[in-house]
Structure formats: structure tokens, C-alpha cells
Amino acid sequence: MAQNKPKTLVCYGKIDHNKIKGYNLLVLEESHYTKEEVDILKSNNVKVIAYLSLAEINAHSKYYNYLKDYTLGKNSIWNSFHLDLTSLELKNRLHVIIDEILGKGFDGLFLDNIDNVCNFGPNPNFKEYLIELLKEIRNRNKDIFLIQNSGLEIIDKTYKYVNMVALESVITNYNFETNAYGLREKSETANRLSDLEVLIDKYTLKILLIEYANKSVLYNKTKKLLLKTGYDYFIGNIDLQTIPKF
Length: 246
Fold this sequence. Notes:
The chain is of the alpha/beta class.
């Protein structure tokens, strides 16, 4: 393994499971891998985590038909639909999905779209329902590794159920309207990192920073800034469909 190889890989596309080796943390789309392939991934890496959106379902997900009757508005950026977290039947179905995913041998879950229930998200009135769902997931699966993606606004309620918090675009700033990659203003990044330091002082949680770059120059600048933070990190393309080659 190359000395400078990243320790974390986040990839939602199908990649050769035999070639993914030497990572401390993998976050993958579970539908691409069989139980036998997950076993191989686990033998070659430290933690193998499955992606799961708790607040949305993508139109291309294999679980879309199973959950489509419990959807509300649409997230047009990602062609996904908001889930009605007030529905007891939806919660039951999410637990079925989680049992299926963990049955493949994954070490845990990367829980996405937590921000949907925060004050600036599309469904802030679902906040308590998501927190209760997260509590149920932890109680049903006490030993799995749970990563909460964003949602710092509710971390005072969720920290006891998760092992790690992931934050996207603390240093970089992808523009969805122009499809342009770039760095945030230094002051904006400093404010975001300051918020994280407060979080770490208060709660015992690991941190993962996920950043986006499309060219080596931006990748190298971002990596240099990330190394100063001391946090675990990953840098990739915005679609997260391939292993980055910078």
C-alpha cells in the first residue's frame, strides 16, 4: 500500500471488491455486494460500513418500491424523495431493510440526510421522529458502528447512539448550479472547524470530513488543509461513484 494512500474510502458505485484493500474505513453502497464479497472486504480492511439514507429514498434504490408509499416531496438534485418519518409502517420497513443490510455482515451504517430534519431542512417537524428512530436502531443493534452524516443541530440528542459524525464540504464548496468545484473562504472553514472543536470537547465522537475535488491541484490544497485538522478524511468527486485518481 502506498504511504500516502487515504485511510478512508467513500464510494457508492460498484467497484471490484478484491481490489479494495488497506483502508481503516470503507463506506459502500450495500446493494453492489453479496455477503461473500463483504466477507472479503472485511478481511482486507478494518471497518466496512453500508450507506443508508434515513430521511430520503433514491428513485434508483432497490428499496424504492418498498418505501415509495411513504414518500413526500422530492429532492431534485439527487432524484430522491423525502420519507414520512411520522409513519410507523415506514419505521418498521426501515428496520427490515437494516436487518437485511447487516445480515450481509457489514460492520455498521453510514446514516445520511440527517440534515433534512434540522431547522433549515425540508422537514424540521420530523426531528423527534428521526431521533427516536436512531435510538431504536441502536437498541436493536448494540454493537454496530454508526456514522451520522451532518445534523450537528441535534447532536445533543443523537450523540449517545452514534460512534462518528461525518461532515461534508467543510473545506471545499461544490456549486450544484454551475457544477464547479472550489475551496470555501478561509473564515467560513475556520468557523465550521471551530464548531467541530466545541462538539469534540462536549461529546466523545470520532470525526470524518468528506470533501470534494475534481483535479489534482484542488485535491492537494484540500489534503494539506485536512492534515492540519487531524481528523479522518476523504476527498472524492461529488457523485462518489469511483475510487478517486488524483
